[in-house]
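Example protein was shown:

_____
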Amino acid sequence: MHRRHSPHHLWGTSVLGANIFAGIRLPVTAFAVAGALLLTGCQGTDPGAGPVTSPTTTQPGTRTPSPSTSTASAVPEPTPASSDGPAANLPVPIKPPLADENTKEGLEAFTRYWFELFDYGYATNDWTAFDAVTDPGCLSCNNVRGVVDDIYSDNRWIAGGDFEVINYVSDFEVNTAGSVQAFVHNKQSAITYFESDGSELRRDPAPTPTTDVVFASHENDQWVLVDYGKPEGSS
């Protein structure tokens, strides 16, 4: 069995630390945050019909309101998180068909998709889609999720921390544990933590790009992320 690893880029060290501001545990970096305040549209109505000149006709240039135009409203649009509030109205990442294939290309597509789900979880604290493709025994994943949940449970939120995969490498060989190893060289942007009133709690600069190792297994016609963290022997 491969050894579980702790995630990188955590509050001040390579392991989870205490938040000196409010006594909660926070990470130094987060994954991509790409949405914010709920935007709602106003309903409108069409001009009323003109005077009737006969039981079956109306005056030229008039039209009768229809349910589709009189009740339509604008679709809320996602906007970046800011001091105005946390992310909202973010679309859940869609898994590409290739990401279910038991091939080297399929594993890479899945890995990139999985990191998009991690981004989405950081931005929304909604881990439903993430859980569907992640082994519940991934300790490093659970640790990061716990940190994010602590932030949002106190009505705080995070912005920034955009995640980018720079390079991906895998020999696509199944190990004795039944999983396949891949190395992901990645970078993240700066991240800002906000208090419940919108004030800035803390801002952390972008960390140095790093390489993580992921393990995934193909089960029931789809990939499942088994573990994620620093490679063996790295600091």
About this structure: The mean pLDDT is 76. The longest strand covers residues 210-219.
